[in-house]
């Protein structure tokens, strides 16, 4: 088993006043040659957006974009839909940019900050027709068990959202002292594990809130929650970027 640990403090950070953005991988003005990607993961941003503020209309193409609100109200609008759509904590949004799409994202609250993760995954098929998906996932369904949020469009998993990549995005909330064995799809996959909150051990490596660990060249690994912990798993093929 091979691992790479990204401590929370090692991430890129930019304070734009209305936006506090933390980057796990090279993005915008943050560049680290050791943090360009993890397999098919290109971006994992941890954003805090001020009330009524957000990102104006901007384009994307040939990227699978996944947004996970943690706190607050996200309002989304894109060139596939004319009206603003709310995405709330507990919900997940996916957008396959494909041949090209424009979208806007704003904090839908006049009072509270919006906290979210946004994830970009490199697709295994380019120039597809753009598509949008959104789904609510209940907290009880990830209590000490794995909850799949996103899987490949080629897989028959009706409970999850779909993207154009052989990937699995999932969450689990572990009680203190609980153990969990994560099993990878294949030896050609790796898992980027973000600790949303808590403290846990992966084999003999300890990770805290907003620390992340990439794990690859293994069939499985064991997690022990040293305290109550929320975890995001992003499993992807370990492709090489040119």
Automatic annotation (TrEMBL):
Q: List the Gene3D superfamilies.
A: Jelly Rolls
List residues of the Pirin N-terminal domain.
Answer: 12-121
| Bilayer-spanning residue ranges | none
- Name a Pfam family for this protein: Pirin_C_2
Q: Does the keyword 4Fe-4S apply?
A: no
Ligand binding (Fe cation)? 58, 60, 103, 105
Which UniProt keywords are listed? Iron, Metal-binding
Q: Which cofactor does it need?
A: Fe cation
* Annotated CDD domains: cupin_Yhhw_N
The cofactor note reads: Binds 1 Fe cation per subunit.
What InterPro entries is this protein classified in? Pirin, Pirin_N_dom, Quercetinase_C, RmlC-like_jellyroll, RmlC_Cupin_sf
Q: Which molecular function GO terms apply here?
A: metal ion binding
Residue ranges constituting the Quercetin 2,3-dioxygenase C-terminal cupin domain according to the UniProt record: 149-236
Q: Does the keyword Metal-binding apply?
A: yes
Q: Which family does it belong to?
A: Belongs to the pirin family.
> Which PANTHER family does UniProt cross-reference here?
QUERCETIN 2,3-DIOXYGENASE
Entry protein name? Pirin family protein
Q: Which organism does this record belong to?
A: Urechidicola croceus
């Amino acid at each position: 088993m091979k691992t790479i640990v990204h401590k929370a403090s090692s991430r890129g950070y930019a304070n734009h006043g209305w936006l506090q953005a933390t980057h796990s991988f090279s993005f915008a003005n943050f560049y680290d040659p050791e943090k360009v990607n993890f397999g098919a993961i290109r971006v994992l941003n941890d954003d805090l957006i001020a009330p009524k503020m957000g990102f104006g209309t901007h384009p994307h193409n040939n990227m699978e974009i996944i947004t996970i609100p943690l706190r607050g109200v996200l309002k989304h609008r894109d060139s596939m839909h004319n009206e603003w759509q709310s995405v709330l904590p507990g919900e997940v949004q996916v957008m396959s940019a494909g041949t090209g799409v424009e979208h806007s994202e704003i904090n839908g609250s006049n009072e509270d900050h919006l906290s979210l993760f946004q994830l970009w995954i490199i697709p295994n098929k380019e120039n597809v027709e753009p598509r949008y998906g959104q789904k609510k996932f209940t907290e009880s369904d990830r209590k000490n068990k794995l909850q799949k949020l996103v899987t490949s469009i080629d897989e028959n998993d009706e409970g999850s959202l779909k993207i154009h990549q052989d990937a699995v995005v999932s969450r689990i909330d572990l009680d203190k002292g609980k153990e969990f064995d994560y099993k990878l799809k294949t030896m050609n996959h790796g898992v980027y594990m973000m600790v949303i909150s808590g403290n846990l051990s992966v084999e003999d490596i300890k990770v805290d809130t907003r620390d992340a660990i990439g794990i690859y060249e293994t069939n499985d690994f064991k997690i022990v929650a040293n305290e109550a912990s929320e975890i995001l798993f992003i499993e992807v093929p370990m492709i090489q970027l040119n």
